[in-house]
Amino acid sequence: MRLFLLPISTRRSLIYCQKGIASSPRQLTWLNNPVEKATTRGSETWLEWEKYKEGWRKKVTVYGNKLFQRLPFEEWGLKSVPPLTAKRKEEGLQGKIKSHVEYPKSLLRQEAVREALQKYGSNERQNYHRKWFWGSVIGMPLSAPAALVPVGSEHIEFLVKNNLFETRPSSALDTAYAESSIGVSLGNLQQDLNDSQQADSTLKMPAEQMLLSEADGILIADSLQIPELAPEVERAVWQIEREIKIQKGHDEKMSKLDSLEQDKKRNR
Q1: Which of 126, 102, 107 is nearest to 190 (CA)?
Q2: E strand spans, 89-205
Q3: What Rg do the C-alpha atoms of the chain give, in angstroms?
Q4: For 169-212, what is each residue's pLDDT tens digit?
Q5: How many other CB atoms are found less than 10 A from the CB of residue 264?
Q6: Where residue 25 falls among pLDDT bands split at 50, 70, 90?
Q7: Which residue of 4, 68, 84, 162 has the lowest C-beta tally within 10 Å?
Q8: How far, in Å, are 6, 65, 100, 173 from residue 106 at the CA level?
Q9: Which residues, at least 6 apart from 208, have a Cβ–Cβ distance to it below 8 Å?
Q10: CA gap 110, 118 in Å, rounded
């Protein structure tokens, strides 16, 4: 199983699993899993419905796409991870299936990769997974097959707990990030963050900065030769940029309120 950990900002990364990569037919058995079949069939139906110019099918897809757009990019990434079946557990523990995680060494330390995987496989993430999934089933049953199935996070947890993955620095990703349109010095950003956390826990964490733009989605996808990865990166960038903008507006508002409060105290 080929996994990728892609830093989108200085605080958040996208996980993605490339499907269909295997050295033997046995490693592709998960593609025949009933859950995966249902999800694939649902996605195909959804794409067909999107082609309608009008009618109830078109309305369902328009509403559904708005709902899916609000789903955190982390969940979309987990959707790419295959279900953890009993057979896959057994073969993993027996060493019959190998998994590795590729990442840009210029930005992420090896320890940071494991920490990110632990976060993706946490109980908190799995609970969120299930909550959103059942909410989508209740709110829009026709789109449920195309929605997330709460299994990807469990698979990541299994790999981490049993140490069944290898970390592999990717020179292709290093090159892609160096060519990104953002043009940020990744090494300096990582060092600044480490220094601030180690020097004094009371210091304010450096402001979150973007490492990729939406235009870089194609760049990353091309560097890995995975065309379907481009929209995943673009979605992640869009969501994080939006959240940073909202947070910035909130911080500026709070700063103004603090200034007004200080002025009132001085004038008393």
Answers
A1: 107
A2: 99-103, 165-169
A3: 21
A4: 999 999 999 998 776 555 555 555 455 445 444 455 677 889 99
A5: 9
A6: very low
A7: 162
A8: 12, 35, 18, 9
A9: 9, 10, 11, 12, 240, 244, 247
A10: 13
φ and ψ at residue 210, rounded to 5 degrees: -75, 140
HSE at residue 133, side-chain half, CA atoms within 13 A, is 19
Q: Are 29 and 126 in contact (CB under 8 A)?
A: no
CA dihedral 75, 78, 82, 86 (to 10 degrees): -90
Alpha helices for the chain (secondary structure H): 34-50, 56-69, 73-79, 86-93, 110-120, 123-139, 152-161, 171-178, 186-199, 216-224, 230-267
All residues at 6 or more sequence positions from 138 whose CB lies less than 8 Å from its CB, including other chains: none
What amino acid occupies position 10? T
The distance from CA 181 to its chain's CA centroid, rounded to whole angstroms, is 20
Query: Which DSSP category does 134 fall into?
Result: H
Cα separation, 233 vs 217, in Å, equals 5
Whether residue 208 contacts residue 9, with contact meaning beta carbons closer than 8 Å, is answered with yes
N-term to C-term CA, the chain: 67
